[in-house]
Amino acid sequence: MEPIGTKLRPHSWDSEQSVAYEAAVEAANAVVGALSALIAREEAKPAAERDEGAIRMWEDEQARCHRVREQLDPANTSEVARLRRHFAERAQVLRGPAGD
Hints:
elongated
């Protein structure tokens, strides 16, 4: 996978938008990481106890996160804010109340 930074073109956004964008990307990364932990936990189970459907669902969600992150426009302030909130909330849910 190509790093996101290599896809950036000359920009028209300011430093505040840049920071918000980076925060949204990090929130998306947190979701991908939380999903990776769930997948690893499930794959560590004996084959007979594994929930392959859950693994596929989590892998699909990871793929969606990657697509959204790649398409996110730093100049679209409202979408950046919305996705930052969404991903932050989703990561918290995936990690559970103890913040695993």
